[in-house]
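Hi everyone, sorry if this is the wrong subforum. Our group has a chain we'd like a structural model of before ordering constructs, and none of us has done structure prediction before. Sequence below.
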Amino acid sequence: MASGAAGSGNPGAGGPKTSTVASIQPGIQLPATSTVATFTAKSIFTGSCTQPQFALVTMDNGGNFLEYPWVGCSYLFPDCCPFDLRVGGQLSVCPADYITTSGGCCPSGYSIYTSAIAGATPCFTTPLLPLVPPDATSNAAVSIINTQLFALQYSLVPASQSSSFPTGAIAGVAVGGFAILACLLGFTFFFVRKRRRAGRLAQEQNATNGRAIESAFTGPAGRGSLSHGPSNGPSELPSPQSATLPDTPLWMTMPPVPPLKPQAPPGPPRELEGDTYIHAHHPATAAAEMD
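Answer:
Right subforum, don't worry. Here is the predicted structure as tokens:
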């Protein structure tokens, strides 16, 4: 870990040698959690979130401290964070101005640091000038890093474990699917019930029509007869073998035929009365008169 004494602003022919940071804050210690934060991948490394600060953390129980320059998400600038620092969390997608590296998210141009600070490995870059805390002293109990600039590294959830839908969206999809399923089941029940009812009505109508037809043929007039007279039921016609011939011959029971009256023989032919003009002028009549 690079460390060194705090420098001071010393303008000269070569320009300033160090850059003094205006504020100092406690170092960030995120709680361990596997909760996936609700984040929409917007840009968060802009404006005041890019202004360096110094963070102070305790290195051990002996009273030694470490000061290091920090930028971005911090207790003083919670709006630069994708989640609540008091709760912590993991991201399913990196912010728009961050890059994915080694399973985590770092600001563009930053890399993963070689060791952990305050229990977590941050992202880092090299500033143009060494950075100096506002209360820089020569206290031997305080170690200062001034040649690296650090930022919080966000843990990225593996793609196989992340969900593209938030919990509320998943619940909404589940409720919507259940409602659609309930509607389909209700429609199916209503349709089947309606068809069964129509089938029963058709059967009852057919049975009623059949009884009406059967009553017409098997009513009081007798089965197989449409007459309105009394009937004792169907009867079989007698066969020739079983028919009984009458004792008296049929020809004896017929009335006598009257005798035919004699008719006079026909007389000689005679001419019918009428106009004699044709007869008088007929060629045959004229030839007879000439002879």
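For your construct planning: The two ends are 180 Å apart (CA to CA). Helices lie at 167-217, 277-281, 283-290.
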